[in-house]
Amino acid sequence: MNIQGLDYNTQREKLILPEYGREIQNMVDHAVSLPTKQERQLCAETIVAIMDRMYPQNRENADYKQKLWDHLAIMSDFKLDIDWPYNVEQAKRMATKPQPMDYPMTRIPVRHYGKMLFEIFEQLKQMEPGEERDHLVRLAANQMKRNLYQWSHGSCDDEKVASDLARFTDGKIQIDLDSFRFEKMEAREIDRKRSNKKK
């Protein structure tokens, strides 16, 4: 169906700052097109006053007026030739999209332990026996048990943790299950992890 004057937002030009809506964007476009600087100045001040009324809760912020003028500059694509009451140079940095981050492609043997635990395993391989290493072993083993519980549908076996710890540290770390005590997982923590998995 093609009715003249009837169009959809998907067919319209994408809004630069959608939170202000299409009418404000149309006002900004109109302000840019005005022939004299005086008219543009008056129009810009009116637009900022309307933007201010749209979000009165932001008035508590220290620099909210500066932000309104920054947003006006961004919406005009920095083409609005007026006497800006604030320096809008920082708005250019706000409008610049950040470079996409590289996705980490590190392969780990067992995903449920995660990359950080494998970094700890590597560290444990290099450490000399002593109190510091024992403390790190306790932290690693308890975290492994939590991860196993979370990703193995509630089953976590102490022998599995001990076996995996020995395997991933090339046999350097051997925990004696007769003397080693894991931290007790509280019922509240277990329930929270179960509910997180359901989501």
Which secondary structure elements does this structure contain, and how are they paired or packed?
Blueprint lengths: L20 H13 L3 H18 L9 H12 L13 H7 L18 H13 L4 H21 L6 H11 L18 H12 L1
Helix pairs in contact: 1-2, 2-3, 3-4, 5-6, 6-7
Description:
It is built from eight helices and no strands. It has 199 residues and is an all-alpha fold. Helix 5 runs antiparallel to helix 6 (131-151).
Task: Assess the beta-strand content as a share of residues.
Answer: under 5%
Shape: elongated
Record field, number of beta strands: 0
Query: What is the radius of gyration?
Result: 29 Å
State the separation between the terminal residues, measured CA to CA: 40 Å
Poorly predicted runs: none
What class would the helix/strand composition place it in?
A: mainly alpha
Q: Could you report the average pLDDT, rounded to the nearest whole number?
A: 83
**Largest sheet descriptor:** none
Helical content, roughly?
40-55%
Question: Topology as H/E string?
Answer: HHHHHHHH
Helix count equals 8
